[in-house]
Amino acid sequence: MTPLIYWISLLFCLLSCASSFGTRYTPDWTSLDSRPLPEWYDEVKFGIFVHWGVFSVPAFGSEWFWWYWKVALKPEYILFMVKNYPPGFSYTDFAPDFHAQFFDPDEWADIFEASGAKYVVLTSKHHEGFTNWGSQTSWNWNSVDNGPHRDLVGDLGAAIRKRSLHYGLYHSLYEWFNPIYLSDKQSGFKTQEFVEKKAMPELYDLVNRYKPDLIWSDGDWEAPDTYWNSTGFLAWLYNDSPVKDVVVTNDRWGLGCYCKHGGYYNCADKFTPGQLPNHKWEKCQSVDTISWGYRRNMKLSELMDLPSIIKDMVYVVALGGNYLLNVGPTADGMIAPVFEERLRGIGAWLKVNGEAIYSTKPWRVQAENATVPVWYTSKSSTVYAILTSNPMQNSFKLLTPKTSHNTVVTLLGNPEPLKWAPLQTSGLIVLLPDLPFSPAEAWTLKLDA
Prior knowledge:
The chain is an alpha/beta fold. It has 2 domains: 29-356, TIM Barrel (Alpha-Beta Barrel); 361-448, Golgi alpha-mannosidase II (Immunoglobulin-like, Sandwich), CATH 2.60.40.1180. Helices cover 30% and strands 18% of the residues. The chain is built from 13 helices and 15 strands. The longest helix is centred in the first third of the chain and has 19 residues, at 3-21. It is globular and about 75 Å long.
């Protein structure tokens, strides 16, 4: 081979390697949507969502307190303010009482780790515009210059990562009452001053400063993605950012993007598909069924109990989704004991049944109406049948699995193989032991081929 041919061949090899291992994404949805979802996200299955901000101070009704009080003019919010605060009291007057004096990020991280969650998503900024870090574009409307006087995003992130959990950040693109945003809105979003001066600088700052594994975008629905410059940001995020190889994004990047564009799909709050979606998705659900933020007026009957949470999570994972469960801390930085109890209960169940959840795939059949509801997950040649209620009988039929002479059936948490026999057409009948007590009211049968 002549030197010239050698160098030409080497150049072609380098160009080929670059195209294989250094894919560049262009700022359009066709290119961005072709990016493979980083594997870690599908493997982890379960995460914790944390809604925390100035709305945690009134802690009444909803994290949309400011909007419901001043725009929707809901009578109960107006009456709450009349009864409890002096005339002229403004929403911004709540910020100094967002003091977070009991906030211990390591304590939070311990609770989240004990829940069995593998990723945590914190609100960096909700629609009220208050940032939980010292954003340079937020003036004094942030947690470093006001309220807690500390970097909440950074403090929690450090504690989360010490436990090898993935750390994500929720960020609202829009702000209800920011005058620059309202000016852009008044122009029919023909101007982009808010995007250029506030929304995008914040996103770039969050990524460069905290290197999140996940960005949970929100507050996008009033304007198209072209207003938000979403595709430009995502192209930078996937090509050149410090988290380009690991970062995961959702689908809230502009009007019409839900369930259509982005990394994985949220589609809508508490999204619950009726069948197996053809794209990776996530259900965000709150322990408090009324609010994402902490409410002092919440009632026990309004909270999800442990069996309901486990049933919901199993349903989501069987249909190929991730389950992001929300808790709202108090303004002084505490996770309410009732929320902690739920999280630790999930962790106790996952310690026994986690192999039927983590790193699993949807099976060829997702559910079966047996004596009690059964949901299926799979991992290689292993099939898991999760019973979300006690069948209250010793023999139990599964009609869907195909068996062989080599099939071994066990109950997770019980090392002894169970006796079983094939049914005439397909499926099997299993002799169940006395099921151990489970506050979650769910048990898993493992079928090894």
